[in-house]
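step=encode ok
step=design start
structure_in=
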Protein backbone atom coordinates (compact mmCIF):
# COMPACT_ATOMS: atom_id res chain seq x y z
CA UNK A 1 0.00 0.00 0.00
CA UNK A 2 1.44 3.40 -0.98
CA UNK A 3 1.03 6.57 1.06
CA UNK A 4 -1.87 7.88 -1.04
CA UNK A 5 -3.96 4.74 -0.70
CA UNK A 6 -3.14 4.73 3.02
CA UNK A 7 -4.55 8.25 3.36
CA UNK A 8 -7.70 7.31 1.44
CA UNK A 9 -8.08 4.18 3.57
CA UNK A 10 -7.71 6.23 6.74
CA UNK A 11 -10.47 8.64 5.66
CA UNK A 12 -12.82 5.73 4.95
CA UNK A 13 -11.93 4.06 8.25
CA UNK A 14 -12.90 7.23 10.10
CA UNK A 15 -16.48 7.08 8.85
CA UNK A 16 -16.62 3.29 9.25
CA UNK A 17 -15.42 3.45 12.86
CA UNK A 18 -17.88 6.24 13.65
CA UNK A 19 -20.72 4.13 12.23
CA UNK A 20 -19.65 0.93 14.01
CA UNK A 21 -19.25 2.73 17.34
CA UNK A 22 -22.75 4.21 16.99
CA UNK A 23 -24.14 0.72 16.33
CA UNK A 24 -22.07 -0.70 19.21
CA UNK A 25 -23.31 1.95 21.63
CA UNK A 26 -26.90 1.48 20.56
CA UNK A 27 -26.60 -2.30 21.02
CA UNK A 28 -25.13 -1.84 24.49
CA UNK A 29 -27.94 0.46 25.59
CA UNK A 30 -30.53 -1.90 24.10
CA UNK A 31 -29.14 -4.80 26.14
CA UNK A 32 -28.83 -2.63 29.26
CA UNK A 33 -32.40 -1.31 28.92
CA UNK A 34 -33.79 -4.84 28.48
CA UNK A 35 -31.84 -6.01 31.52
CA UNK A 36 -33.16 -3.15 33.65
CA UNK A 37 -36.70 -3.42 32.32
CA UNK A 38 -36.70 -0.01 30.67
CA UNK A 39 -38.45 0.97 27.46
CA UNK A 40 -36.70 0.04 24.23
CA UNK A 41 -37.10 3.65 23.24
CA UNK A 42 -34.00 4.23 25.33
CA UNK A 43 -31.97 2.55 22.59
CA UNK A 44 -33.27 5.13 20.14
CA UNK A 45 -32.24 7.91 22.49
CA UNK A 46 -28.80 6.31 22.75
CA UNK A 47 -28.53 6.29 18.97
CA UNK A 48 -29.18 10.04 18.90
CA UNK A 49 -26.73 10.69 21.74
CA UNK A 50 -24.07 8.52 20.09
CA UNK A 51 -24.53 10.37 16.80
CA UNK A 52 -24.20 13.74 18.53
CA UNK A 53 -21.12 12.49 20.38
CA UNK A 54 -19.53 11.39 17.09
CA UNK A 55 -20.18 14.73 15.45
CA UNK A 56 -18.97 16.63 18.51
CA UNK A 57 -15.74 14.63 18.64
CA UNK A 58 -15.20 15.31 14.93
CA UNK A 59 -15.39 19.10 15.30
CA UNK A 60 -14.19 19.83 18.85
CA UNK A 61 -11.69 17.15 19.90
CA UNK A 62 -8.74 19.40 19.01
CA UNK A 63 -10.01 22.23 21.20
CA UNK A 64 -10.41 19.85 24.13
CA UNK A 65 -6.86 18.54 23.69
CA UNK A 66 -5.35 22.04 23.58
CA UNK A 67 -7.33 23.10 26.64
CA UNK A 68 -6.28 20.08 28.70
CA UNK A 69 -2.58 20.42 27.80
CA UNK A 70 -2.42 24.17 28.41
CA UNK A 71 -0.91 24.72 24.94
CA UNK A 72 -0.42 28.30 23.73
CA UNK A 73 -0.28 29.50 20.12
CA UNK A 74 2.98 31.18 19.09
CA UNK A 75 4.22 33.50 16.35
CA UNK A 76 7.39 33.10 14.30
CA UNK A 77 9.16 35.74 16.39
CA UNK A 78 8.57 33.70 19.57
CA UNK A 79 10.37 30.52 18.44
CA UNK A 80 11.90 31.24 14.98
CA UNK A 81 13.71 27.91 14.51
CA UNK A 82 10.69 25.84 15.52
CA UNK A 83 8.28 27.90 13.42
CA UNK A 84 10.52 27.82 10.32
CA UNK A 85 10.95 24.07 10.64
CA UNK A 86 7.17 23.63 10.55
CA UNK A 87 6.98 25.99 7.54
CA UNK A 88 9.69 24.15 5.61
CA UNK A 89 8.25 20.72 6.31
CA UNK A 90 4.79 21.90 5.26
CA UNK A 91 6.19 23.08 1.94
CA UNK A 92 7.91 19.71 1.45
CA UNK A 93 4.70 17.84 2.35
CA UNK A 94 2.41 20.08 0.30
CA UNK A 95 0.34 20.95 3.36
CA UNK A 96 -1.30 24.15 4.50
CA UNK A 97 0.52 25.80 7.38
CA UNK A 98 -1.02 24.58 10.65
CA UNK A 99 -1.28 26.67 13.78
CA UNK A 100 1.88 26.30 15.86
CA UNK A 101 1.60 25.80 19.62
CA UNK A 102 3.97 25.37 22.54
CA UNK A 103 3.59 23.69 25.93
CA UNK A 104 5.73 24.90 28.82
CA UNK A 105 6.98 21.51 29.94
CA UNK A 106 10.54 20.25 30.49
CA UNK A 107 9.54 16.74 29.39
CA UNK A 108 10.40 16.47 25.65
CA UNK A 109 7.45 15.57 23.45
CA UNK A 110 5.25 16.76 20.58
CA UNK A 111 1.83 16.09 19.12
CA UNK A 112 -0.53 17.12 16.33
CA UNK A 113 -4.28 17.55 16.52
CA UNK A 114 -7.20 18.80 14.42
CA UNK A 115 -9.80 17.22 12.17
CA UNK A 116 -8.06 17.69 8.78
CA UNK A 117 -5.01 19.40 7.19
CA UNK A 118 -6.86 22.73 6.93
CA UNK A 119 -7.78 22.73 10.62
CA UNK A 120 -4.59 21.36 12.17
CA UNK A 121 -2.26 22.17 15.03
CA UNK A 122 1.35 21.17 15.68
CA UNK A 123 2.53 21.43 19.27
CA UNK A 124 5.90 20.82 20.93
CA UNK A 125 7.07 21.11 24.50
CA UNK A 126 9.83 23.49 25.50
CA UNK A 127 11.80 20.46 26.64
CA UNK A 128 11.78 18.98 23.14
CA UNK A 129 12.88 22.24 21.50
CA UNK A 130 15.78 22.54 23.93
CA UNK A 131 16.94 18.97 23.33
CA UNK A 132 16.75 18.43 19.56
CA UNK A 133 19.25 19.51 16.92
CA UNK A 134 18.06 20.69 13.48
CA UNK A 135 17.85 17.25 11.83
CA UNK A 136 16.13 15.70 14.85
CA UNK A 137 13.58 18.52 15.08
CA UNK A 138 12.84 18.13 11.37
CA UNK A 139 12.27 14.42 11.94
CA UNK A 140 9.85 15.06 14.80
CA UNK A 141 7.92 17.74 12.90
CA UNK A 142 7.79 15.54 9.78
CA UNK A 143 6.33 12.74 11.92
CA UNK A 144 3.64 15.04 13.31
CA UNK A 145 2.81 16.52 9.90
CA UNK A 146 2.49 12.96 8.59
CA UNK A 147 -0.21 12.36 11.18
CA UNK A 148 -2.00 15.39 9.74
CA UNK A 149 -1.51 14.36 6.12
CA UNK A 150 -2.62 10.78 6.82
CA UNK A 151 -5.72 12.01 8.70
CA UNK A 152 -4.61 10.15 11.83
CA UNK A 153 -5.61 13.02 14.09
CA UNK A 154 -9.21 12.86 12.86
CA UNK A 155 -9.36 9.09 13.22
CA UNK A 156 -7.93 8.95 16.73
CA UNK A 157 -9.90 11.95 17.98
CA UNK A 158 -13.16 10.25 17.05
CA UNK A 159 -12.07 6.89 18.47
CA UNK A 160 -11.01 8.31 21.84
CA UNK A 161 -14.28 10.18 22.42
CA UNK A 162 -16.41 7.18 21.49
CA UNK A 163 -14.36 4.79 23.62
CA UNK A 164 -14.90 7.15 26.53
CA UNK A 165 -18.64 7.19 25.89
CA UNK A 166 -18.76 3.38 25.98
CA UNK A 167 -16.90 3.39 29.31
CA UNK A 168 -19.38 5.92 30.73
CA UNK A 169 -22.57 4.04 29.81
CA UNK A 170 -21.07 0.75 30.98
CA UNK A 171 -20.19 2.33 34.32
CA UNK A 172 -23.68 3.85 34.63
CA UNK A 173 -25.27 0.44 34.09
CA UNK A 174 -23.08 -1.25 36.70
CA UNK A 175 -23.92 1.47 39.21
CA UNK A 176 -27.63 1.25 38.37
CA UNK A 177 -27.71 -2.49 39.09
CA UNK A 178 -26.73 -1.82 42.71
CA UNK A 179 -29.68 0.53 43.21
CA UNK A 180 -32.31 -1.33 41.20
CA UNK A 181 -34.98 -3.58 42.68
CA UNK A 182 -33.71 -7.13 42.44
CA UNK A 183 -37.32 -8.43 42.46
CA UNK A 184 -38.28 -6.47 39.33
CA UNK A 185 -40.15 -8.98 37.16
CA UNK A 186 -39.64 -6.91 34.02
CA UNK A 187 -35.95 -7.55 33.94
CA UNK A 188 -34.86 -10.60 31.96
CA UNK A 189 -32.28 -12.74 33.73
CA UNK A 190 -30.69 -13.65 30.38
CA UNK A 191 -30.41 -10.01 29.36
CA UNK A 192 -29.12 -9.13 32.82
CA UNK A 193 -26.28 -11.65 32.58
CA UNK A 194 -25.51 -10.56 29.03
CA UNK A 195 -25.57 -6.90 30.05
CA UNK A 196 -23.16 -7.48 32.94
CA UNK A 197 -20.74 -9.28 30.61
CA UNK A 198 -21.06 -6.44 28.08
CA UNK A 199 -20.55 -3.81 30.78
CA UNK A 200 -17.31 -5.47 31.91
CA UNK A 201 -15.84 -6.44 28.54
CA UNK A 202 -17.00 -3.64 26.22
CA UNK A 203 -14.75 -0.89 27.62
CA UNK A 204 -11.78 -3.27 27.54
CA UNK A 205 -12.47 -4.35 23.96
CA UNK A 206 -13.02 -0.77 22.81
CA UNK A 207 -9.78 0.36 24.48
CA UNK A 208 -7.77 -2.48 22.92
CA UNK A 209 -9.08 -1.51 19.48
CA UNK A 210 -8.17 2.12 20.13
CA UNK A 211 -4.63 1.20 21.21
CA UNK A 212 -4.09 -1.16 18.26
CA UNK A 213 -5.14 1.57 15.82
CA UNK A 214 -2.88 4.07 17.60
CA UNK A 215 0.20 1.82 17.32
CA UNK A 216 -0.37 1.20 13.60
CA UNK A 217 -0.68 4.93 12.91
CA UNK A 218 2.63 5.58 14.70
CA UNK A 219 4.44 3.17 12.40
CA UNK A 220 2.87 4.84 9.36
CA UNK A 221 3.79 8.33 10.63
CA UNK A 222 7.40 7.22 11.19
CA UNK A 223 7.62 5.91 7.62
CA UNK A 224 5.85 8.94 6.15
CA UNK A 225 8.06 11.32 8.14
CA UNK A 226 11.21 9.57 6.95
CA UNK A 227 9.95 9.80 3.37
CA UNK A 228 9.30 13.50 3.84
CA UNK A 229 12.78 14.39 5.18
CA UNK A 230 14.61 11.73 3.13
CA UNK A 231 16.69 11.26 6.29
CA UNK A 232 15.37 8.49 8.59
CA UNK A 233 18.33 8.92 10.95
CA UNK A 234 17.04 12.33 12.06
CA UNK A 235 13.84 10.85 13.50
CA UNK A 236 15.66 7.75 14.77
CA UNK A 237 18.12 9.92 16.69
CA UNK A 238 15.25 12.01 18.10
CA UNK A 239 13.47 8.88 19.32
CA UNK A 240 16.71 7.70 20.95
CA UNK A 241 16.90 10.91 22.94
CA UNK A 242 13.27 10.51 23.99
CA UNK A 243 14.00 6.95 25.10
CA UNK A 244 16.86 8.08 27.34
CA UNK A 245 15.05 11.07 28.86
CA UNK A 246 13.20 10.38 32.12
CA UNK A 247 11.82 13.87 32.85
CA UNK A 248 8.27 13.45 34.21
CA UNK A 249 5.57 15.28 32.22
CA UNK A 250 3.94 18.27 33.87
CA UNK A 251 0.71 18.65 31.86
CA UNK A 252 0.20 15.42 29.90
CA UNK A 253 -2.61 13.04 30.84
CA UNK A 254 -3.51 9.46 30.04
CA UNK A 255 -6.42 10.76 27.96
CA UNK A 256 -4.05 12.54 25.56
CA UNK A 257 -1.03 10.21 25.77
CA UNK A 258 -1.84 8.54 22.44
CA UNK A 259 -1.40 11.87 20.60
CA UNK A 260 2.25 12.38 21.51
CA UNK A 261 5.19 11.17 19.43
CA UNK A 262 6.00 8.98 22.44
CA UNK A 263 3.81 8.04 25.39
CA UNK A 264 4.89 10.53 28.10
CA UNK A 265 4.21 7.97 30.85
CA UNK A 266 5.93 4.97 29.29
CA UNK A 267 9.57 4.58 30.34
CA UNK A 268 9.56 0.79 30.28
CA UNK A 269 10.38 -1.63 27.53
CA UNK A 270 7.61 -3.95 26.43
CA UNK A 271 8.50 -7.39 27.74
CA UNK A 272 5.83 -9.52 26.10
CA UNK A 273 2.91 -9.57 23.69
CA UNK A 274 0.24 -9.17 26.38
CA UNK A 275 1.67 -5.99 27.90
CA UNK A 276 2.21 -4.66 24.38
CA UNK A 277 -1.55 -4.79 23.77
CA UNK A 278 -2.07 -2.04 26.35
CA UNK A 279 0.53 0.40 24.97
CA UNK A 280 -0.49 3.49 23.02
CA UNK A 281 2.78 3.37 21.03
CA UNK A 282 5.03 0.64 19.65
CA UNK A 283 8.32 0.12 21.56
CA UNK A 284 10.80 2.90 20.79
CA UNK A 285 13.52 0.32 20.19
CA UNK A 286 11.42 -1.29 17.45
CA UNK A 287 10.61 2.05 15.82
CA UNK A 288 14.29 3.08 15.82
CA UNK A 289 15.32 -0.28 14.38
CA UNK A 290 12.83 0.01 11.53
CA UNK A 291 13.86 3.59 10.74
CA UNK A 292 17.52 2.61 10.54
CA UNK A 293 16.69 -0.20 8.13
CA UNK A 294 15.10 2.22 5.66
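sequence_out=
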Amino acid sequence: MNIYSAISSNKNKTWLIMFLFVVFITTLVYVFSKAMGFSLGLAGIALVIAGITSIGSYYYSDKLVLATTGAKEIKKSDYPKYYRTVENMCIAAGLSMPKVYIVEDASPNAFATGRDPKHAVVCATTGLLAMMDDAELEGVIAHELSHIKNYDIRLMGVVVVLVGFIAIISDLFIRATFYSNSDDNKASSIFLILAIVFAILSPIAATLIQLAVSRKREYLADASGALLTRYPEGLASALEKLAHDKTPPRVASNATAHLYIENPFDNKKVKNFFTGLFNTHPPLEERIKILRQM
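step=design ok
step=annotate ok -> The chain has two domains: 3-67+153-202, 70-151+214-292.
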